[in-house]
Amino acid sequence: MTGIEADAALVGDRVGSFRFSVDGERWEWSDEVARMHGYEPGSVVPTTELVLAHKHADDKPAVTALVDNMIRHGQPFSSRHRIIDTQGRVRVVVVVGSRRFDEAGEVIGTSGFYIDITDSDENDVRHRVGQAAKSIAADRAVIERARGILMYVYQFSAADALSALKWRSQETGLSLREFCERFAREVVAANMIPDHVRREVDRVLLGVHGP
């Protein structure tokens, strides 16, 4: 999945990411989230109906209201509830979602993570939520740095820069985070900005004033 990805070395298979796009009500699951629901990665295309179908009957009304609010209004949310996988096993999950915006600041969807806490105690739950949030924040920072480089060099829009990074990450077989990290590191190491450009940036940086 070319979205915000959990650091597998840090949180393992019990944490995974998801993305929802308002346009077309499109969902994306990381491999970990697919497995939580009992599917092999890539074997199913998640939909709103499928997401809700896996909710435990006692939790489904509340979760349905959260999902509906997310779809209609792009609201962030958090929920602790039960899902039932394809084998009929009940899993307890924490799901946290935050809003995604386009270049104009309009809400275009939601992204976030699932944490399987079926066999966890409260301290472990808090630890895993904190670690997942830190990992996702780190992913965002790395991706934004690489995107900023492309926007500056090629005068790309934010969306075009992200598309280019996704394309290259898929070609290389690297996750989006890993590709962006390597790309930005090598650009910095190559010291590609000439002195005259640095001087002009210095001039503009110091010349911008408030009202």
UniProtKB/TrEMBL annotation:
<dbReference type="InterPro" id="IPR052162">
    <property type="entry name" value="Sensor_kinase/Photoreceptor"/>
</dbReference>
<protein>
    <recommendedName>
        <fullName>histidine kinase</fullName>
        <ecNumber>2.7.13.3</ecNumber>
    </recommendedName>
</protein>
<keyword id="KW-0418">Kinase</keyword>
<dbReference type="Pfam" id="PF03861">
    <property type="entry name" value="ANTAR"/>
</dbReference>
<dbReference type="InterPro" id="IPR036388">
    <property type="entry name" value="WH-like_DNA-bd_sf"/>
</dbReference>
<dbReference type="InterPro" id="IPR035965">
    <property type="entry name" value="PAS-like_dom_sf"/>
</dbReference>
<keyword id="KW-0808">Transferase</keyword>
<dbReference type="InterPro" id="IPR000014">
    <property type="entry name" value="PAS"/>
</dbReference>
<dbReference type="InterPro" id="IPR005561">
    <property type="entry name" value="ANTAR"/>
</dbReference>
<keyword id="KW-0597">Phosphoprotein</keyword>
<dbReference type="GO" id="GO:0004673">
    <property type="term" value="F:protein histidine kinase activity"/>
</dbReference>
<dbReference type="InterPro" id="IPR013655">
    <property type="entry name" value="PAS_fold_3"/>
</dbReference>
<dbReference type="GO" id="GO:0003723">
    <property type="term" value="F:RNA binding"/>
</dbReference>
<dbReference type="Pfam" id="PF08447">
    <property type="entry name" value="PAS_3"/>
</dbReference>
